[in-house]
Specification:
This protein is an alpha/beta fold and about 325 residues long. The chain has two domains: about 10-200, inorganic pyrophosphatase (n-terminal core) (Alpha-Beta Complex); about 205-325, Diaminopimelate Epimerase, Chain A, domain 1 (Roll). Helix content is about 40%, strand content about 20%. The protein contains twelve helices and twelve strands. The chain has helices spanning about 10-20, 35-50, 100-105, 135-145, 155-165, 175-190, 195-200, 205-215, 230-235, 250, 285-290, 310-325, and strands at about 20-25, 50-55, 75, 85-90, 110-115, 125-130, 220, 225-230, 260-265, 270-280, 295, 300-305. The strands form two sheets. Strands 3-2-1-4-5-6 form a six-stranded parallel beta sheet, with helices on both faces. It has a six-stranded mixed beta sheet with strand order 7-8-9-10-12-11. A hairpin with a 3-residue loop joins strand 11 (about 295) and strand 12. The protein starts with 9 loop residues before the first helix and ends in a 6-residue tail after the last helix. The relative contact order is 0.11.
């Protein structure tokens, strides 16, 4: 990861949007609060400007985020259409945008890459890539304030959702006074911090509790790395349509003795999805990048070909290297 990330190209992005009549916004597969929040915040604002906006994601909107304004406009397939501009949000590389990203790139005149992952591969034509930002919704906020785009409630609510979920309630090391000032501005625009927190961080389905029941017996602490396994049968017994850790990686990193947590999620077609978390001072983003994924120092993931056992043998030694080099920081 030696690529130099250019300064945000605010004026170029603004000019592209100003000239565009049709825009498509895509985000990463298995979208989280920041992915959906940044896509919807942008879409709702651009529609207010009279733009024709399509929003797409292979996996649609997670049930926990269907309350966001405009969530019902997100489609899961793109099979026709051409656009003046494509905006990719919260995706570190082209593959992460899935099938909708492939179609949109092939049928758009220009691509704006908006993201906050240090592992971003700098695809596209115009770059709004800011690794120092706590979320992609923060970048959307900066873009709108830089160019004078109005932020009403329907824009503010999705943006605050991304800010809250990607910082785990303003608890990661990148959170600063600026982060809190952005949250305040979004609240003044009509977003409720209480509602966003209650609907995202403080909400869990009974299915996810069932999944934890089946997966927790697999949890082990190996040195300073705590790991668990979610198998296809676990998801099936919990009546889940897809294999997810339901936030288990974030739960396990709370273990006092653990500096890194990882969940190995068995997927169809002989591959394993991994979700990793770390405490401040331990950088897991490089490990994710090495196995074909991406993310942040404290939250990262990837989808790796192979069996659970093979992927564990590949990834766990790399995480032990992380814990050997890292130093816990609380400041």
């Amino acid at each position: 990861m030696t690529t130099t990330i250019p300064n945000p190209e605010w004026h170029e992005a603004a000019a592209a949007i100003r000239e565009a009549k049709t825009i498509v916004i895509v985000t990463h597969v298995s979208p989280d609060g920041d992915a959906i929040g940044s896509a919807l915040g942008m879409a709702n604002a651009l529609r207010e400007l009279g733009k024709s906006v399509t929003v797409a994601d292979d996996d649609g909107v997670p049930e926990s985020l269907t309350w966001l304004p405009g969530s019902d406009t997100i489609v899961t397939q793109l099979t026709e259409g051409r656009w003046d501009v494509m905006i990719s949000t919260d995706a570190s590389d082209e593959a992460r945008t899935g099938n909708v990203g492939t179609y949109a790139r092939a049928n758009s005149l220009r691509v704006i890459n908006l993201d906050h992952h240090v592992t971003n591969t700098l695809f596209g034509d115009i770059f709004l890539v800011m690794p120092a930002a706590v979320s992609s919704t923060e970048i959307v906020y900066h873009w709108f304030t830089q160019t004078g785009i109005a932020i009403n409630r329907d824009v503010a609510v999705p943006l605050l959702t991304g800010l809250v979920t990607d910082t785990i309630g303003f608890r990661i090391s990148l959170v600063s006074a600026l982060t809190l000032s952005i949250a305040q501005a979004l609240m003044q625009a009509g977003a409720s911090l209480t509602e966003v927190t209650a609907r995202t961080l403080d909400s869990r389905s009974y299915q996810s509790v069932q999944l934890w029941k089946y997966s927790l017996p697999s949890v082990n602490l190996d040195g300073q790395v705590i790991y668990g396994i979610v198998r296809l049968d676990d998801a099936k017994r919990a009546n889940m349509d897809e294999v997810s850790d339901a936030g288990l990686a974030s739960f396990l990193i709370q273990v006092r003795e653990a500096m890194v947590s990882i969940i190995f999620k068995e997927q169809p077609n002989n591959c394993v999805e991994i979700s990793m978390r770390s405490k401040t001072g331990y950088d897991i983003s490089e490990v994710a990048f090495q196995v074909g994924g991406g993310g942040h120092k404290q939250a990262a993931g990837a989808t790796v070909p192979g069996t659970i056992e093979a992927v564990m043998a590949l990834v766990l030694p790399k995480l032990h290297e992380v814990t050997a080099k890292g130093t816990l920081k609380i400041s």
